[in-house]
Each structure stands twice: as C-alpha cells, then as structure tokens.
Model the fold of this input.
Amino acid sequence: MHDRALTQMQLETDMRQGFERGEFCLYYQPIFTIETNNLAGFEALIRWNHPTRGMVSPDQFIPIAEENGLILPLGRWILFESCRQMREWQDKNSAAASLKLSVNLSCKQFSQPDLVEQVTAALISTRLAAHCLKLEITESHLMENSVLSVKMMDRLRELGVELSLDDFGTGYSSLSYLHRLPVNYLKIDRSFVSRMTESTENGEIVNTIIRLAQSLKMKVIAEGIETSEQIEQLKQLNCEYGQGYFSQNRWKPKPQKYLLTK
Ligand code: C2E
Ligand code: CA
Ligand code: CA
Done:
C-alpha cells in the first residue's frame, strides 16, 4: 500500500510536467465494418510516454487526472488534437471523408457546463465536420446524474456529433432508462467479446446485447476483437462494427494513409 501511494504521488507530480513537456500522444485504433472489412473510423486512445517508466497505461493515469483536475486541460487537448489529426487525414485523402473519429470523454469532462462550447470550438478550429465526430461515454457515468446527462447528450446531438455508450454491459444500466438515452452506438465491452467463443451461453450474451441494441435502433460496435473466430461469430450475429488487436494487425500492412499512430 505504501509503495502504491508513493507511485501514485510521483505520477501525479510527473503528470503536470509531462503535459507541459508534450509527453502525451494519441494512438488511433481502427474501427471497421464487420460485413465488408471496410475501415469505418478510428478511436483515439491517449498514451503517456514517461521519460523513465516508458508507456504508462491510461487505466493508471486517467483516474489520477480525474482526481487532480488535469483531466480537463488534457481532455480538451485530446479533443482538439484528435480532430486536427482526423481533418489532416481527410485533407490528404478524400476517401477519409466518410470516416468517423471516436473520442473518449471522462465523466469530469461530461459534467463541464461548457462542454458543448468546447466541442463546437474544436470542430470549428480544425474544420472537422460534426458528423465525423463520435463521443464515447461510459454507462456508469451516465447513471450518476441521468436527467442532466440526457440534457447534455441532446445538446451534443444538436451539434450533429454522434454518441456511443462505451463498455456496455459492465455498468448495470436500467433497461427502462436505456431507451431514453439519445445514443447512436452501443459498444459491447471487451470482457464479453473475449469470452464469446468459449461457450454457447457466453455467445448468447453477446447475441442478446446485439438484439437489444437493434430493437432500440442503436448500432453496435464489438470491442476487443482478437481472433478470426470472434469476427466470424460476430458476423453471423449481424454485429455491424468491430475493433481490437485483430483489426490492428489487419490494417498494419495497409498503405501509409492509415497509420495507427500520429
Ligand atoms: P476503452 O475506451 O474501453 O478503450 C479500449 C481499450 O481496450 C484500450 O485500452 C485499447 O488499447 C484496449 N484494446 C483494444 N483492442 C483490444 C484487444 O483486442 N484486446 C484487449 N485486451 N484490449 C484491447 P487503453 O488504451 O489502455 O485504454 C484504457 C481505457 O482508458 C479506455 O478504455 C478509456 O476508458 C480510457 N481512455 C483511453 N484513452 C482515453 C482518452 O483519450 N480520454 C479519456 N477520458 N479516457 C481514455
Ligand atoms: Ca472507448
Ligand atoms: Ca470500451
């Protein structure tokens, strides 16, 4: 516990300096249409290239950044930088015009009263079309204040951006509440995808989530796809989109235009 507390404190100090020194960067994981194998877009994932610790996982530093408030400037940078990068790809390649960029929002960002203004400013300054941007919000964050959340989501949708419900299945959503959420996509958490080929029961869970999304008129993205067996099963279940290490490998040999990193 003592060691953990020390590491935590050190990370907190390093993080502010690291942000000022430009040690944070974004990786872009491809999201593809399962039926056709076509690239549909990317999810921006933050990385911290620490001078001595190497790459630090966001699972380690996002909770600290949420506690010490750094998530607000960091989140703003992520939004602007990823929109800028997406627009640069679009300027270089007209085929990228139909691709969508997914950006994760922390619960702290989501409760910021000026979030809509921030998103508007990012879109205007980078010249990215609103329909090319998707914002990912986790199920558990929405549950914390459902009335305010729906209002914020409605305002974001009015801008023309799309919304995804991230890590679906892990946050104990009330089903009666789900249909009132103005979200376009449900993302099946990777814990379900990783077990889906192990047994009929696990496959059925994924099937049920896909049917639920379809009946709520939401599109489905399966995350954490690592094997061709998972892809095959998801295809049979009519899951529309997928992402994961499997797709990363598939896209790697493709031309420079879809580089995974900046
Ligand atoms: P997430 O939004 O669920 O992101 C997907 C995570 O799954 C990423 O981990 C990604 O690298 C990992 N992943 C992708 N494909 C596979 C796969 O096939 N197998 C396995 N086992 N894992 C896979 P990462 O990048 O470490 O991010 C962890 C979490 O940190 C994210 O979960 C998200 O909640 C948060 N995060 C990442 N980037 C950002 C960001 O820019 N802003 C905010 N607020 N949170 C972020
Ligand atoms: Ca996500
Ligand atoms: Ca997720």
